[in-house]
Amino acid sequence: MSLLLQILLAFGTLSLLAIGGANAVLPEMHRLVVEVHGWMDDATFSQLFALAQAAPGPNILAASVMGWHVAGPSGMAMATIGMLLPAATLAFAMQGLTHRLRGNAWLKPAQFGLVPLAVGLIAGSGVIMAQAAGTNLLSFVIIAASTVFVWRTKYSPLWVLAGGGALGLLLL
Amino acid sequence: MSAPSNRALFLAYLQIGLTGFGGVNAWARHMLVEKRGWLTEQEYAETLGIGQVLPGPNALNTAIGVGVRFGGAMGAMACALGLLAGPMLLLAGIAALYDAYGQLPLVRATLTGIAAAAAGMVLGTAIKMGVKLRPTLPLLAVGLAALALALLRAPLPFVVLGLAPFGLIAAWWAMQPRPGRR
Lengths: 172, 182
Prior knowledge:
The structure holds 2 protein chains of 2 kinds.
Chain A: H1 3-15, H2 22-36, H3 42-54, H4 62-101, H5 107-133, H6 137-152, H7 158-171
Chain B: H1 6-19, H2 24-35, H3 41-53, H4 58-101, H5 105-133, H6 137-151, H7 156-174
Helix pairs in contact in B: 1-2, 1-4, 3-4, 6-7
């Protein structure tokens, strides 16, 4: 199977599972990209994800950056189409339906019941990212400080990314 | 107020996509509700709520919802492409730079720091969401099961399909009015 097709399929299987956005599918993305296909190592994976976090736009576009890293511009196109098209098609198809569903007794539990699942998956992503990024003492200090900052304050997370980059540049 | 044209939708979402550092939804609300007045607060909240139940980035789902509302399929395309065009171009540039310079020691050190900060950011987000949720015991169990399965590297389709019914039942149960509560 050609590489581009593999990229399309790998990210395509993630698309409909991304409840709550990119963070929830991160463990699966890591499993596919690093462990199953061996397209990149741990460090590259966490750096590419961090770059996508720092840039504007939905975080799910981390898939696009990874696609580029594996196979250039056409890899980026395949990863993006795979990641976005199935979910976007579903969202489009559901629009007429959801207007009728409004106020339906099951919509609220559906919204509410998927949240803990998404939070659990996001927590899993955090741990896996920390395992990949925690290479020395300083990186663990940055991870801990950034966790507390994002948890306890309302400032934009971009400050954390900028601070982490500056510390890395100066001290690593 | 007359419905916005597809061109106006595209341009509005182009701006949302490019200014949407650290979460697009706050910017989308500001643009659609406050600046352009295309949607009321309530209408935006409903469209976003539906976007959050559906899989995929909720900013994109919401953009599709807004587009369909004003311009049907073409409107949805206009909003989706507008939202993605800016970030995609920028990310292509970033990816090319990473491939060219990513291995330089200073770049690598900076990126390692950013990656560590991003890991903390994801952890902090999970804690913040979990605390705000104040889950009942069954909902907490669903969350912890998802965390455990993610760490065991269980394939995600099984995790989502296996746990979603329990999440729905737990949520439905938590929402039943019961004498003696609250």
